[in-house]
Design a protein that fits this description.
With 415 residues, this protein is mainly α. It contains 15 helices and 2 strands. The protein has one domain.
C-alpha cells in the first residue's frame, strides 16, 4: 500500500525520521550513561549541558575532529564502504514503521508512516540482513586478525539469532493474516499480541538483544578477547558510523517489538478508554513511551548481567530459541486452522499452550543446567583421582647413567 502524498510531504517525512533517529540515538547514549551510573552509585555525565544532556553531541564532535587513520594493508574502498553499509539499513528499516494514525500535515491528511506494502515486515528483515555485510566487510578489509575474528563471530551471532527472530514473526503473520505493519496494528485493536503470542514475544525480545550485539550478548566487542571486535582498526567518523548503527538498530528492533506485540501507536488500557487517545498526534506519544521502555530494558541488561561465553550463547540460540519457535509455530498454526474451520475461540487454547511451552522450556533449562553441573563435577573428581594416583605412585625417573648412555660419546663428554 502506497500513500498518495505530495513530494513535499514525503521529504518532510524522510527528514523527520532521520532527525528523530539521530535525536533518539543521542538521548539513548546519554540515558544509558546516566542510568548505569545510577545503578553503580556513580554520577555520570553532568558537566556538558543541563544534567549532561549535550554530552553525546560533544562526543560526536570529538570523534569527527579525531585523526582518521586507515591501516596500510587495508582494502581502502571496502574499508570506507563498510560503515556506510552497516549504518544505511538501520535507517531504511524505519520506512515502514507506523508512528501514528492519519494526521493533518500542512493541510494534507496523511498517515504517520512513510510507506507500507503487503510484505513490510519481510522488508525489515531483508534490510536488517544487509547490515551484516557491513560488519563482515569491516573485519575483512581491515587486514587484521582481531578484526577478522570479530567480524566472523558477529556475523555468526547475528545470522543465528535472525533465524529465531524470523520464526517469531511467523506466528504474528498467521494470527493477524497479514505482513503489513499497519494491518498488524489494526488487528490489535481489541487485544495486543503480547498476551496471545507471549512465547513469540519472549523469543523476539531475546533475539533482538543478540541481533544488536548488546550485553550480555556483546561478544563481537569483547575487549578482553578481540580488542574491540570488527571495528578495531576504525577511528574518527567511520567508527562513529558503527556506533550510530548500533544505537539506531536498538531503536529499530524496539519499534518492531512495539508494532508487532504492543499494539504499535495504540494507547494502553485504561488510557484507551479516552475518546481522543488514538486520534491525531497523541498516539505518537504512546509510541515513543513504548519504544523508550524497550530501550530502558537494553540499558538495564547492560548494567546488571555479565557477558555470556560464546559457546553458551550459540547453544542457547540453536538448542533453545529455534526449537521453541518451531514448536510454538505449530501450535499457532493449529489454532489458526481451528479458528478458520469452526467458530471456537482459540485465545484460551493459545494462552494455555503458551504456559505449557514456557514450563517445558524452563524444565529443560533446569535439566540441562544439572547435566552440565554433573559433567563438571565428574571431570573435577576424575582430575582429583589422577592427582592422587600420581602422588601415591610417582613416575620413576631414569638414572643419570642411563641418560648419559643414550647420548653419543661426544655429547656425553661435553655433558
Amino acid at each position: 500500500m502506497t500513500f498518495n502524498d505530495p513530494f513535499g510531504i514525503i521529504v518532510v517525512k524522510v527528514l523527520g525520521i532521520f532527525v528523530l533517529l539521530v535525536l533518539m540515538t543521542l538521548f539513548t547514549i546519554w540515558a544509558e550513561r546516566r542510568v548505569v551510573s545510577r545503578m553503580q552509585h556513580r554520577i555520570g555525565p553532568n558537566r556538558t549541558g543541563p544534567q549532561g544532556l549535550l554530552q553525546s553531541l560533544m562526543d560526536g564532535i570529538k570523534l569527527a575532529l579525531k585523526e582518521d587513520i586507515t591501516p596500510t594493508g587495508a582494502h581502502k574502498a571496502v574499508f570506507l564502504l563498510a560503515p556506510i553499509i552497516s549504518t544505511g539499513p538501520a535507517f531504511l528499516a524505519f520506512a515502514v514503521i507506523p508512528f501514528g494514525p492519519e494526521v493533518s500535515m500542512f493541510g494534507h491528511t496523511t498517515p504517520l508512516q512513510l510507506t507500507d506494502f503487503p510484505v513490510s515486515v519481510l522488508y525489515v528483515l531483508a534490510v536488517a540482513s544487509v547490515g551484516i555485510y557491513g560488519i563482515v566487510l569491516a573485519g575483512w578489509s581491515s587486514n587484521s586478525t582481531y578484526s577478522l575474528l570479530g567480524g566472523l563471530r558477529s556475523s555468526a551471532q547475528m545470522i543465528s539469532y535472525e533465524i529465531a527472530m524470523g520464526l517469531s514473526f511467523v506466528a504474528v503473520f498467521l494470527y493477524s493474516g497479514s505482513m503489513s505493519t499497519s494491518q498488524i496494528i489494526e488487528k490489535q485493536t481489541s487485544v495486543w499480541f503480547i498476551l496471545l503470542l507471549l512465547p513469540s514475544f519472549a523469543i523476539y525480545a531475546i533475539s533482538m538483544v543478540g541481533e544488536t550485539n548488546r550485553a550480555p550478548f556483546d561478544l563481537p566487542e569483547a575487549e578482553g578477547e578481540l580488542v574491540g571486535g570488527f571495528h578495531t582498526e576504525y577511528s574518527s567518523l567511520k567508527f562513529a558510523l558503527f556506533f550510530l548503527a548500533e544505537y539506531v538498530n536498538m531503536v529499530t528492533v524496539s519499534a518492531m517489538a512495539t508494532t508487532l506485540f504492543l499494539g504499535g501507536w495504540r494507547a494502553p488500557w485504561p488510557l484507551s478508554t479516552w475518546a481522543g487517545a488514538n486520534t491525531g498526534w497523541v498516539p505518537f506519544v504512546w509510541w515513543l513511551c513504548k519504544v523508550f521502555a524497550f530501550l530502558f530494558v537494553f540499558i538495564w541488561l547492560r548494567g546488571t548481567l555479565p557477558r555470556m561465553r560464546y559457546d553458551q550463547f550459540m547453544r542457547f540460540g540453536w538448542k533453545v530459541l529455534i526449537p521453541s519457535s518451531i514448536c510454538w509455530l505449530l501450535i499457532v498454526a493449529t489454532a489458526r486452522a481451528l479458528r478458520n474451520n469452526s467458530t471456537m475461540d482459540t485465545r484460551g487454547l493459545l494462552v494455555t499452550a503458551a504456559v505449557i511451552l514456557l514450563v517445558v522450556v524452563g524444565i529443560s533449562a533446569v535439566v540441562e543446567r544439572q547435566r552440565i553441573a554433573a559433567t563438571e563435577r565428574d571431570e573435577a573428581e576424575r582430575g582429583e583421582r589422577e592427582a592422587r594416583s600420581r602422588r601415591l605412585f610417582p613416575t620413576p625417573h631414569a638414572p643419570a647413567a642411563a641418560s648419559a648412555a643414550a647420548l653419543e660419546p661426544g655429547e656425553a663428554h661435553d655433558a
